[in-house]
Write a structure and sequence with these properties.
single chain, 333 residues, alpha+beta
Length: 333
C-alpha cells in the first residue's frame, strides 16, 4: 500500500461517498411516491452502522515513542488515555487589550493521540498560527489528509494577527498523522521545546479563586488554570471521547500584579445552555470573543465561547461562577 493509501483512513471526509449513497437511498422512496421513513440516521452513529460504541483504552508514554520522535518533542499522558503534546508559541510577542499575553494563557498549541479498542487512533488538537502561516499550514494538513474542524480566534484586538485551528484525524496509521502534523508545524515558526519553568507561585489569591469557581486550580508556567469537564459521555461518531478531550471549560488567569489578572476563558456548552452562559459572562464584565464549534460530529453537539476579562482575579472568579453553574460540568482531575 502506498503512503497515500495508508493515510486515507485518517481523513474525516473519507465517508463522503457513502453519505451520498445513503442520501440518495433515503430520497428514492419519496421520489417514487412511497411513504418516507420515520427518520434518517446520520452516518457515523452507532445505530446507523449497526454496532456499539468504541471506547478508548489506556496507554502509556512508552506506546507513543515513535510519535514523539516524529513530532520532535516529548508529550505526557492525561487521564491515562490521551497522549498530549504541547507546542507553545514562545516565539510570538502578542498583545491583546494592552496586555502582553503569555504563551500558557492563550498561545498553547497542542495535539492529543488516543488509542481505541478497535486498535484505531484518534488525533485532536488546537494549533496557534500567525495569519502569514495560516494558509500554508492548512494546505499541509490537506496534503496529509488531516481534517480541519474550526478556524477561529481566542483573543480580541490582537497584535500580531493570529488564528487558532482545530484539527481532527482518525484511522489505523497514527504515524502517518504524526508525519503530516510535523510537516505542517515545520511551515510555522513554532519554536523547539524548552524545559518548563513550572513556577508554582502566582501573584493571585488562588484560594479565593478556587472557592469562587468551585474547583482546585493549578499553576502552569506562571498561569493559574481552573479546568472543568462535561458530565455527559461525549461521542464522535462511534468513538467515545475521553473526559476532557475537545470538551473542556477553561478559566486561565495571568497575573498582572496586585491580585489583578487577565482571564482568557473557554466554556463548553450544549445548545440549551448557550444563551444563559453568554448572559452570565457579560454580567460578569467579560468580553465575548467567539461562539463556535470545535468538532463536526460530536454528540451531544457542543458549542464553545471564548471570552476575555481583566480585573481583580478573585472578584472576577466570583462573578464568573454563574457561567460555570449554567453548564453541566464538574472540575477536572
Amino acid at each position: 500500500m502506498t503512503a497515500e493509501g495508508r493515510q486515507q483512513d485518517s481523513y474525516p471526509h473519507a465517508g463522503a461517498p457513502r453519505r451520498r449513497v445513503l442520501a440518495a437511498a433515503a430520497l428514492a422512496p419519496m421520489l417514487a411516491g412511497a411513504p418516507s421513513p420515520a427518520r434518517a440516521l446520520p452516518t457515523g452513529t452507532a445505530e446507523a452502522n449497526g454496532h456499539g460504541l468504541i471506547k478508548p483504552v489506556s496507554t502509556a508514554r512508552s506506546h507513543w515513542k515513535s510519535v514523539a520522535k516524529t513530532l520532535g518533542r516529548a508529550g505526557d499522558m492525561k487521564r491515562k488515555m490521551m497522549y498530549h503534546t504541547a507546542f507553545p508559541r514562545r516565539d510570538l510577542r502578542v498583545h491583546s487589550r494592552h496586555v502582553a499575553v503569555k504563551p500558557e494563557l492563550a498561545l498553547g498549541s497542542h495535539v492529543s493521540f488516543v488509542r481505541y479498542a478497535d486498535k484505531s487512533t484518534m488525533v485532536m488538537g488546537d494549533v496557534v498560527v500567525t495569519e502569514h502561516e495560516l494558509q500554508p499550514f492548512i494546505d499541509a494538513l490537506h496534503e496529509h489528509r488531516i481534517g480541519l474542524t474550526a478556524i477561529h480566534k481566542h483573543l480580541l484586538s490582537q497584535s500580531p494577527h493570529i488564528w487558532w485551528i482545530h484539527i481532527h484525524a482518525h484511522g489505523h496509521h497514527p504515524m502517518a498523522v504524526a508525519r503530516g502534523l510535523r510537516a505542517a508545524f515545520d511551515l510555522t515558526s513554532t519554536p523547539p521545546p524548552l524545559p518548563s519553568t513550572r513556577r508554582q507561585h502566582v501573584d493571585l489569591d488562588t484560594e479565593r479563586i478556587d472557592a469562587a469557581l468551585g474547583a482546585k486550580g493549578s499553576v502552569d508556567d506562571g498561569i493559574y488554570k481552573c479546568i472543568f469537564v462535561r458530565r455527559e459521555t461525549i461521542t464522535d461518531g462511534r468513538l467515545v471521547l475521553p473526559p476532557g478531550l475537545g470538551s473542556t471549560s477553561a478559566f486561565n488567569f495571568q497575573p498582572l500584579g496586585g491580585g489583578r489578572a487577565a482571564i482568557s476563558g473557554d466554556c463548553a456548552m450544549i445548545a440549551k445552555e448557550v444563551q444563559d452562559v453568554l448572559t452570565a459572562l457579560r454580567r460578569a464584565g467579560a468580553e465575548l470573543v467567539e461562539l463556535h464549534n470545535h468538532g463536526l460530529t460530536d454528540e451531544p453537539r457542543l458549542f464553545f465561547v471564548h471570552f476575555w476579562a481583566v480585573g481583580d482575579g478573585a472578584r472576577l472568579a466570583r462573578a464568573l461562577r454563574p457561567a460555570v453553574d449554567a453548564t453541566n460540568v464538574v472540575p477536572a482531575g
